[in-house]
Design goal:
alpha/beta; seven-stranded mixed sheet; 15 helices; globular; binds zinc ion
Length: about 300
């Protein structure tokens, strides 16, 4: 599962939508066009389902409720009565502890990984309350999923959230730059070794808020990673799900979140079975979990 923060399905208009302007050969190969438009798309390679992120609650969808809704399959915004930005509150934390993806994968006996690399500086910032855990990090910790560190990153067993390690080098850490393609191949290698792997990319949302990089560059960097990851996976037995919590980057006319649907972009094994279950961001995790609740095949004699 590729969680890409703040990516909705916008207009097919290069003037407003950086996904239409950006060079995205991987996404275009999958979809026969850019990641844009609000209709479902099915090609030989991929299925795109627009997902509702508004969840019947007025206002602009936000990350804390959107990510909690995505991970838990529960309408977190309706529970709180509003869309909540940034980090899960105690009540959302409790919901994640019981219903969150990683917790339920653990209960189902499914080996799960969060492929992102975390630094000592990150944990120090959390300890000093300068940062708080986002929903995905928090839920992995709640489930006892090991958070990968710089040793994993140096050994190619993790991917930094910016894909290339450039941000780590700006922090003064001695670590080699990797290309987005290398990041994609490393992510694919992690996914091949695990049953369920999550990677979180949030520079899309930051770029849309004007807080990190140029939208076009961020999209193109992500696309290079995606193309290499897909090339390195056996899509006959692996399902790739790319999805988001709310729109933002797809509308360059505003730096705020949008009301647009978000993509469920499905590539590989079982994509049509999954696609038939999807209508809102709350549908993704329950549908994924059901992939493991089917009766085990009877071994042949
Ligand atoms: Zn945002």
């Amino acid at each position: 599962m590729l969680f890409v923060d703040g990516v909705g399905l916008g207009e097919r208009d290069p003037a407003t939508n950086p996904f239409v302007r950006a060079g995205t050969p991987a996404l275009r190969r999958l979809l026969g066009g850019p990641l844009a438009g609000r209709e479902a798309v099915r090609t030989d390679l991929a299925t795109l389902v627009p997902l509702d992120a508004r969840l019947g609650v007025p206002g602009l969808p936000q990350s804390a409720t959107g990510q909690t809704a995505l991970l838990s399959g529960e309408n977190a915004a309706a529970l709180l009565g509003r869309h909540l930005t940034a980090y899960p509150t105690p009540s959302l934390q409790r919901l994640l502890a019981v219903r969150g993806l990683f917790v339920r994968l653990g209960a189902a006996g499914v080996q799960a990984a969060l492929a992102n690399a975390y630094t000592d500086g990150y944990f120090a910032a959390v300890a000093r309350r300068r940062l708080r855990h986002g929903a995905i990090t928090l839920n992995a910790m709640q489930a006892g999923v090991r958070l990968r560190d710089l040793a994993d990153l140096r050994a190619g067993r993790a991917v930094y959230h910016d894909l290339t390690n450039a941000g780590l080098r700006r922090q003064g850490l001695e670590i080699a730059l990797v290309s987005p393609e290398d990041a994609g191949r490393r992510l694919a290698a992690i996914a091949r070794a695990e049953t369920f792997t999550v990677f979180e990319f949030f520079q899309t949302d930051l770029a849309a808020h004007g807080r990190a990089g140029e939208p076009i560059e961020v999209i193109e960097r992500y696309d290079r990673m995606l193309g290499a990851a897909l090339d390195a996976l056996d899509l006959g037995e692996t399902l790739v799900v790319m999805t988001s919590d709310h729109g933002n980057l797809e509308d360059g006319r505003t730096t705020a979140h949008t009301l647009n649907p978000v993509p469920a972009l499905l590539v590989g094994a079982g994509r049509d079975v999954l696609a038939s279950r999807l209508g809102a961001i709350t549908d993704v995790v329950p549908a994924c979990l059901d992939l493991w609740s089917a009766p085990a095949p009877v071994p042949s004699a």
